[in-house]
Amino acid sequence: MRRWRAVTAGLTVLALGAGLAVGGATSASAEPVGNWGTFTLSGASRAYTGTMTLAGFPETTFTSDSRQSTVVSGASTWQSAVTPSGAVYGTSRGQTYMNQRPNVDSPTSGASTTTYTFAEPTPGAQSWSFVLGDVDADRATISATVSGGGAATAEQLGYVSSYNSCSAAVTGGPSCTADPDGTTGRDLPTWDPATRTLTGNTGAVDTAGATAWFTPTVSLTSLTITYQQRSGFPVYQTWFADRTAAITGTATLDGAPIPGAIVRVTAPRGTVYTTTTEAGGTYAFPQLPVIASYRVEITPPDGAEGPDQPTRVSLAQAGSPGGVDQQADFAFTSPEDSVSVIGTVVDEDGSPVSNLEVVITDPDSGDVLVDTTTNSDGVYTGSDLPADTDLDVSVADEPPVTVTTGDVDATPAEPAPIEAPAAVVATVTGVVSLDGAPVPAGQVVELLDDAGAVIASTTTDADGRYAFATEAGTYTIRTGRPEPGATGATSNTGVTAVAGERASSDLPFASAAAAAEVTTDQPGTVFDTNGEPVPDVGVVATPTDPQSGDPVSVVTDDDGAFDLTGLEPTTEYAVSVDVEGAETATVVTPESGAATPLAFVVRVAAGPAPAPAPSPSPSGSPSVAPTGPAAGSGSAPVSGQGDAGDGGPLAYTGADLGPGLIAAGVLVLLGAALLTYRAVRNRRRTDHLQD
Fold it and tell me: How large is the average pLDDT for residues 110-118?
């Protein structure tokens, strides 16, 4: 399957001549769609780099000196389809976004700076947006560079509105933690155009869902967000979104489809997109930014009559905020009383040969009737030819082949494929790989001439291999990144193809390096009030802000020690011990390393009571006090292990040892007195019997 791809303005592309606007662009039936960006992140704290990939949008990279940046999946926080931004682009649920902190948590210094750089100017005409979320106890100052240089004005940044994304405010939104001031679902950030600053609520209270969105009105080359803490330990979120629509059409010659023809779409900002027609003459650019004044053109058949080019097409339509798909057909015809031909040139393996010169002559007069080159599918076309005539077709100055034209008003003649001699065919081949393994079949690869024009397009096979058969020359091989954030050159320039030989040009890529994960750990111990370690007790650290990560749990070892690892830096956690009644400790983790150890002291676990001294019984068996279940309360964490104390409380029961010991002592004394009394009585009875 053929695919289109963008050619950045920085590359040399065909200079497009001015043309008259013509009718012929009509609405297509497909539905325009909204898209949300995909982020990748590399680097480490205060030195992050990354990419943002968005359909129909320029390749985007960014740098950030944020203390902590993470890419979040979008499974727990998103923009619902009912939010103002979601109403335009659809829900962002399940789509990634950036979660970032300041450089330092200080209201007067330590702001973080994140700069997005676009490989070419962004689409204009308000076709894309960026969204900033969770702006409450913080503020974000926004700046940008417009195409051609210069700073964007507040008006050009395109602030649209502020809203709250929580389910308490909009249908389908994420369920947010209750705000401490009772404003859940109502907190909104405030935009100051004079300073281009988005500021959270007046009290700098940590809330949830406070969001604003921007739709730039001009093309930008960079976007910078300077993020400042006002209180607490804030984070903010960033999304990118756009809408895309399609331009499709069909190219024909005298009613017959033209396969392999190069079609170009040029955006007003200079970006050029290319594709080739399918076997049925159809082409499609499925994801173009929703803007106006695209120029669409195709290489016309030599000698044919057809529409003026380029054709003007607008995807942005009044009354249709999401844009409208358009169709631009190219119907070429032979001049009156003449005919046309559509043929192919292949190599000895039957593969199409592109960019090879084909000359059609009249064998009787020797006149050259057509001088053209084969297209991406090895197809050559010619028109304004005499009907029912034998003509000579010569490929690369080789001896001609006879081709017979058809009747006037008939479809073009389609002669048998012409095999180009191996001596005139140059082959360029290679492998596109990712992390040393071939990319999946279907990766688009393009062949560009020395002027930067796309002359052929193909796709990789199951082994990641592509091949072009063409004429000798110097070429550029180009492809897209096989996955978002993949590193590696997308093109190889100066590839020399020699006739009769095979040139190799591989395109290796590597997956984006994962960002260095910055985590901290919280060590501690759990002892009872007797100073004994408590093993096998669960300890859980739960972030007080659910957006700061998942709970982390461990179990104490035989020494009562624990270490909660993988905690988010500078984040507030509630640390609890799985003992009934034990109090919870609230801590804030450090930027790195281990936090100050916690020392939990809990009540002593209930165990078997001491057995009383043995006494005679009818059965001759000692009595044993029953053991009770572990229940009761504990105490808050303290700085040390503490002493058990004399007759301290029973852990897990709350009972005092004093009364129990006194009662036991009384019982022992009573038992001893009873034994003494019985012994004296028995002795007296014995003495009496002996008398």
Answer: 97
Inform me whether the pLDDT recorded for 329 exceeds 50. yes
* Whether residues 438 and 401 fall in one domain: no
Q: Which of 361, 392, 422 is the last residue of a domain?
A: 422
**Same domain flag for 80 and 211:** yes
Asked if 100 and 69 count as a contact pair (C-beta separation under 8 A), the reply is: yes
Q: How far apart are CA 325 and CA 356, in angstroms?
A: 35
* Ramachandran sector of residue 515 (left: φ over 0; alpha: ψ -120 to 50; beta: rest): beta
How many whole angstroms separate alpha carbon 294 and alpha carbon 285?
12
Where do the DSSP E strands lie in 254-407?
A: 256-257, 262-266, 272-276, 282-289, 294-298, 311-313, 326-328, 330-332, 339-346, 353-354, 357-361, 368-373, 379-385, 390-395, 401-404
Tell whether 136 and 237 lie within a shared domain.
yes
| pTM attached to this predicted model | 0.78
CATH number of domain containing 464 = 2.60.40.10
According to the model, what pLDDT value does residue 569 have?
87
509, 533, 562 - which closes a domain: 509
Residue whose tokens read 């103002």 = 84
Task: Name, in order, each residue with C-beta under 8 angstroms of 98's C-beta and a sequence gap of 6 or more.
Answer: 39, 41, 50, 69, 70, 71, 72, 114, 237, 238
600 lies in some domain: yes
Domain count, the chain: 4
Letter for the amino acid at 109? S
Same domain, 182 and 62: yes
Name the residue among 116, 8, 113, 98 with its Cα closest to residue 60. Answer: 116
What is the rounded CA–CA span in Å between residue 360 and residue 348?
22
- Give the pair of three-digit tokens for residue 191: 């935009």
Domain of 485, in residue numbers: 425-509
**For the ranges 222-226, 235-239, 569-573, which has the lowest average pLDDT?**
569-573
Tell the burial category of 402 from Cβ atoms under 10 Å away from its Cβ (0-12, 13-18, 19+).
exposed
